[in-house]
User: What shape does this take?
Amino acid sequence: MNQAKPRYQQLKDLIIGRISSGELQPADRVPSENELVESMSVSRMTANRALRELNDEGYVDRVAGRGTFVSDYRSQSHLLEVHNIADEIALRGHAHSSQVMRQSLQHARGEVAKALHVEQGTDVVHLLLVHAENGVPIQLEDRHVLASFAPGCLQQDFAAVTPSAYLTSISPLQEAEQVVRASVPNRAVQKYLDIEDGEACLVVIRRTWSAGRPVTFARLHHPGSRYELTGHYTPPGTSRSTSSDVVQLEELRQ
Amino acid sequence: MNQAKPRYQQLKDLIIGRISSGELQPADRVPSENELVESMSVSRMTANRALRELNDEGYVDRVAGRGTFVSDYRSQSHLLEVHNIADEIALRGHAHSSQVMRQSLQHARGEVAKALHVEQGTDVVHLLLVHAENGVPIQLEDRHVLASFAPGCLQQDFAAVTPSAYLTSISPLQEAEQVVRASVPNRAVQKYLDIEDGEACLVVIRRTWSAGRPVTFARLHHPGSRYELTGHYTPPGTSRSTSSDVVQLEELRQ
DNA sequence: CCCGTGAAGTTGTATATACAGGCTAGTACA
DNA sequence: TGTACTAGCCTGTATATACAACTTCACGGG
Assistant: This one.
């Protein structure tokens, strides 16, 4: 039934486990190849493969002569494309604030139940909040969270910690699916985001999985005039160990 | 100046070269590890690393007992997220057609020159075409291509082969950057896409690099009511060799 | 005090070797 | 004829060994 995993994969799992449990923090030193040889009774080539693949996958950074260190690149959002609005704003050096409009226990129905793969009537927490960048509304977050996944969700102060950050802290989110649309919003959304009549919205609809099942479903409305999504694609094989120049956009955005 | 690349990387480059030159077609057999040992005078472990990494990066598929074969997964779009509208429509089983509205040689100025990193006045080919799915307009492609990169661009019949496919055939596009916006378009765009007054557009602005320099800059307008972008994110390390279930969205789109 | 030098530890690469396990084709046998 | 088996090739993993290059740090000479 349960195939024995290869030795190098066991090593990877062990280290990933230490990272996601918090035992190893970003920038912490990971055991060197020789230390793994001693403590785990493997050959250096096996330890090398484990650490090299963790490097390729972005979990750690390796520097010849110095050692292997937990990467903090990954911790901010786990997946580059699926980021937290607060971090995104902070990255631009601006001030983030958010206002909780609704935070209530509800029964899932219709689209929400379908998206979360649960029966109609299952308990979900409904969150509605407006995120602002330097005081200007930039995202209306309309989110449903499986109550069984995040029991503390009703008490949490989401003005201080965003739902995204809170959910990530409970359990690493492992998979995400999103749809991006453009539409002219209804009055309610217009009011929340303080946008003109007839202005377009960029809508991101996102489902996120943890432990193999969907746990949260969010509709994110953004004012078309104040928000855009950016992405940068490089072919795999472009070594992660070389200096990461993730810069070079920005000028098109102005 | 030019650091000697490691042996395994030379092997990878060699095989990638054979694939992108067309010498090796999808599903063709790639030299086995032992054949590389003989012909390239390397150890089997080195050949193994080269082929294993090509597998991880999606260039080839390996089957224990049978051999290594060129993957066709990669050839359709090189980067999953940066796809060709014609392929995308074909994937849905619908009919794609396109109409060329403009195909002319121009001098780059302003935003275009800036985006392509060239002097004002450099020759660029300007393309404007409307793509339709089952006869319904779904994308207005407003593209500028560096004339020096694609000399045949003015003669090409883009109603038959999309610019994206044509450019990919000239040289593999290696890097892409895109910005996604929502906006209400002007009259001209409205007319091309046959959309209602006041309806939103999903706008994708994309720059693509080849051989280290930007070669094409495109603004893609889509009717908000008839088009959406979808994305699916899985953490790296989710082995590529296991059966790829890229399915599982679709139901949210209805 | 400063600088160079070298030792020790680290990653990066390359090789030879070994065994396990999957796949295929051909052969021997019933 | 058909079936079972096996030889041969393939990938997948694991180990021991070796050398190169980089980083840090301590030590010693100027």
In short: Chain B touches chain A through 49 residues (CB under 8 Å).
